[in-house]
Amino acid sequence: MAQQIPIDPQARADDPRADAARDDGTHAVAPDLAYRRLVLVNVVFVGPPGAGDRGWVLVDAGIVGSASAIRDAAASRFGAGARPAAIVLTHGHFDHVGVLADLARDWDAPVYAHALERPYLDGSAAYPAPDPSVGGGLMARLSPLYPTKPVDVSERLHILPADGSVPPMPGWRWLHTPGHSPGHVSFWRAADRSLIVGDAFVTTAQESAYAVTVQAPELHGPPKYLTLDWPAAEASVRALAALEPERAVTGHGRPLAGPELRRALHALARDFARVAVPDAGRYVARPARAEDGSAYRAP
User: Fold this and answer.
1) What is d(CA 282, CA 12) in angstroms, rounded to the nearest whole number?
2) pLDDT digits 0-9 by tens, 198-229
3) Rounded-to-5 percentages of helix, strand, coil across the chain
4) Is 37 helix (H, G, I), strand (E, B) or coil?
């Protein structure tokens, strides 16, 4: 049965005291790294406060209806009217691209993603259906209602370079971390060992509405109801654990830092089959993959 890796609350990477005076809803993780929680998902801001127009990057684009919250946070953090150099995506699930088209248009911003996510971002393919049979709570049971159709930002879409660089994010590299989706990527900055992992692993039981609300820190594999390839997801967690990160910002839940993060991440990598993989499920029995086309379906 899938379980979780408990976390010492002191391992939180954000500092509530440091953020107490902020009114933009963001939480600092490093001097130039912050996130904002939007109901059930996080968006990440990369760039120092006051960076100004084109001096920062948005990672992921939240849920439908969150555009104003993201714009307001950006204006407060970087300056009135400050547009990002780019919007960079970990993947294209509905809760990470909810207002992507609106923000990219309004900010005249390029969008970067992995080549294997292109079909979900140029309107040509939808994700396979979610799997509510994985269990874990209300969020999983409701998953058949979640959108799987693609967005179309093809006019602004750029594919991340094969050399691992992230053009709008100097000092960062992208790492292919598939499993949750075919072209899922994480972002790594070796200088301070910072990770932005999207949904490669998360720090809340995303299947449970209660856990999503409470946000008690615990380490989990990717959200089960949308994960297409469990062997690939396990390999991705092992690769991220091997980096020995100092801090990690996840797509769901609070960021974690320090030895406790590394301990828990290694435990997740070691015991992934026991603590992360559902006992049964559509994609447990038969992964959906880019290689054979099963990860893509007609929109």
Assistant:
1) 34
2) 999 999 864 443 334 334 568 999 999 899 99
3) 30, 20, 50
4) strand
Identify the CATH number of the domain in which residue 67 sits: 3.60.15.10
- β-sheet bridge partners, residue 44: 35, 59
H or E segment at 67?
helix 67-78
DSSP 94-132: TTTSTTHHHHHHHHT--EEE-GGGHHHHBTS-BPPPP-G
SS3 73: helix
Instruction: Give burial (CB, 10 Å; 0-12/13-18/19+) of 292.
Output: exposed
Residue 160: give the domain boundaries.
Answer: 5-285
pLDDT, tens only, 46-100: 999 999 999 999 999 999 999 999 999 999 999 999 999 999 999 999 999 999 9
Cβ-count burial 48-72 (b if 16+ within 10 Å, e if not): bbebeebebbbbbbbbeebbebbbe
Q: Is residue 65 part of a domain?
A: yes
Question: Looking at the DSSP assignment, which residues form a beta bridge with residue 35?
Answer: 27, 44
- Report the number of distinct structural domains present in the chain: 1
Q: Token pair for residue 154?
A: 């093809």
**Residue 296 falls inside a structural domain:** no
Tell me the backbone φ, ψ of residue 233, rounded to 5 degrees. -60, -40
